[in-house]
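subagent[fold] <- orchestrator: predict structure for attached chain, return tokens only, no commentary.
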Amino acid sequence: MTGSRRQQKRRTRLTARLGTALLGAALGTANAQEARSIDDLFGGPAPAAKPATPATTPPTPAPTSIDDLFGGPPPKPAPSATPATATGVPALAAPGAPPPAKPAVTGFYQNDLAYTYARPRHWSRFNNMLDLVVSGKGDGFAYKLGGRVNYDPIYDLTDHYPAAVRDDQRFEAMVRETYVDFGAGDFEFRLGRQHIVWGEVVGLFVADVVSAKDLRQAALPDFDIIRTPQWAARAEYFAGNFHAEAVWIPAMTYNDIGKPGAEFYPFAVPAGASVAKERKPGGIDDAGYGLRLSYLQSGWDVTGFYYSANDLNAAFRRVSPTLYQPIHERVHQTGLTVSKDLGPAIFKGEAVHTRDRLFSTFDPTDADGLVKQDTLDWLLSLEWSFPQETRFNAQFFQRYHFDHDPSIGADRAESGVSFLFSTQALHPRLEPRLLLLHSLNRSDYSAQFKLVWRASGNWRLAAGVDVFGGSPNGLFGYYDSRDRVYTEARYSF
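subagent[fold] -> orchestrator:
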């Protein structure tokens, strides 16, 4: 099956999910007003230039439209001359078709500036990121080569962080998605470093068990920044509404949690103790593998999967009373995802049973400070789309511990809710977003507000604030002293 065929089948699967969003976008265009709109506060779009005349040129009027401040509506993207797959890679060339004249080069530069205003106040981020992708196709195959470079001078300009943190986050260069695609009949194959996304909900990772994540900024950045691809071999089979996917990861990539003393390090190191080098198993014997099956029936997209690998999350083993070591032990995960277009809303559900996950215990008599727990993580989500790209999402999520051990400091059932609101009602280029996550077991929350401006050309600018609160033993309250304001500037090409 060629890549264009893959695109056609995936497009069929996505139709049910996108119906509400497309309807909302269509209705939004019908709400423009010619008078007394927010554009009329400062005047309409500038008229086309006229030939100069001998008459005296009148003075330039003052800005009278919000368009004069933020620009007109974003232009519609031009149709691509080269069809692309759902992953953004050019579709596989038909056998015998001539290769393109040259590969396509895309990417972005992004600057992130953050100031932590919770005491002790300090500049906490000034990262500069360059992400480059080269993609193309040949006779029966397609390829993608990606790389990313980060440099943050904050770690040269301040001594707020320990030396290990500064060395870890000052500079890095990494290989991103780098793979080759090819097909045979109804099968598609991808070999190389790639994203494998098995679940995607707002602000959380439930069924997304294969992708590694860069958590050095917690889960605050956009997911295209957080996700880290895996070195993997993937095979997919398509037959009507049925889709099967098998993955094998010979060299695991784990979640990046940084070093002790970093802004969002996930482990509270006891006073007088230290943390040894993280143990990251990487041999063939520690390979990850999984199988995922999905079927689309009457608008219901149902998927089940099994995945076995060393836990992406580190567990902190107590080596001695004053020494801890992050380790990764094998877990086994069985999951289910479901989605359905209900007309006014999109419904999603995800559930994952994890066996043999390690949790830290407060029991001082435990030999290594870790206990195994089987857990069930599940989530229900509803999302409504309204005119003018207005979006509201509500979610309920829970982790249930089987054979619960109270010494881990969590309740048998840890529940929470989240709410997301975003809109372009103020202006097509201006989008405020608000994401709230709240624990139902304790007064524990995260509030993230972001204002995005899609400036003219290829620029996207944003400013926001991240606030945490609640019990220091909670998922969000642990970062109570990390409240910050920030800006982002991205240029895409």
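orchestrator: received. Logging for downstream: Confidence is low (pLDDT under 50) at residues 1-5, 7-66, 80-90. The chain is about 10% helix and 45% strand.
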